[in-house]
Amino acid sequence: MQRLIIKRLLGTMTSLKPINAAVPKYGVGTQPFTVLIEGNIGSGKTTFIKHFQKFEDKICAMTEPVEKWRNFKGYNLLELMYIDPDRWAMPFQSYVMLTMLERHTKPTDKPIKILERSLYSAKYCFVENLHKGGLIHDGMYEILKEWYSYVEDITHIQADLIVYLRTTPEVVYERIRKRARSEEACVPLEYIKQLHELHEDWLIRKKVGCNIKVLEIEADLDLSEIDREYKRSENVITASIQQQRPAVTASPSKRSDFLG
């Protein structure tokens, strides 16, 4: 009797086909056309996003969650990271990852989402710079890398276009001094130069990172001149969206200039 039961069980098991269907990533199909605004500290990312506030009925624009970083249950993690990076860089970057992920996956009913910075710049620029500068231990660095890999494996990070506000370190350093944020008072020019090179490696030299279209904007210009660059980005965003859509017949008010 036992032999008969075992034989039937074995027959059933060999007849079953393995399930190879991949589990879909969290957030697949939930995000609109997404633009990432990247650049060094002081490159004008927040100003760029404010330019698009006039399209608030069509664009979900999300600035960097700096206020969360400044006040996490009463702790200014941003300031602590700058003052004592050996101790605070790891927890700060962990919290950056969490808050960025929240913004990447936050639902919206708008056809366009614009994000100030992203998980990618946190990974390829800021964490990398901390490690190269010896401000985080190799073990901490490997933990953060493992977390980034895991997040990318299980979560769909929508990224259709990167707008790179390209600047020179000396220009943004002067801007940082003028805006006088208390947390940035101890930021040296050398730190800005290092971040610049890592942005260049990622977005210009393509040494690291994923295959996302990059629009480069000359962001050394002062505010009186840079508006035309912002306008150019409107046209590129519109054209990029249209390239991803099937051809349809639309009324003039709904054609490719829908940001206008």
UniProtKB/TrEMBL annotation:
Active site: E116 (proton acceptor)
Gene Ontology terms for molecular function: ATP binding; deoxynucleoside kinase activity
CDD domains: dNK
GO cellular-component term (any): mitochondrion
Keyword ATP-binding set for record: yes
Residues that coordinate or bind ATP: G39, N40, I41, G42, S43, G44, K45, T46, T47, R175, I176, R177, K178, R179
Domain Deoxynucleoside kinase, residue spans: 36-229
Keyword hit for Metal-binding: no
Keyword set, alphabetical order: ATP-binding, Kinase, Nucleotide-binding, Transferase
Protein family: Belongs to the DCK/DGK family.
Protein name stated in the entry: Deoxynucleoside kinase
Organism: Bactrocera dorsalis
Phylogenetic lineage: Eukaryota, Metazoa, Ecdysozoa, Arthropoda, Hexapoda
This protein's encoding gene: DNK
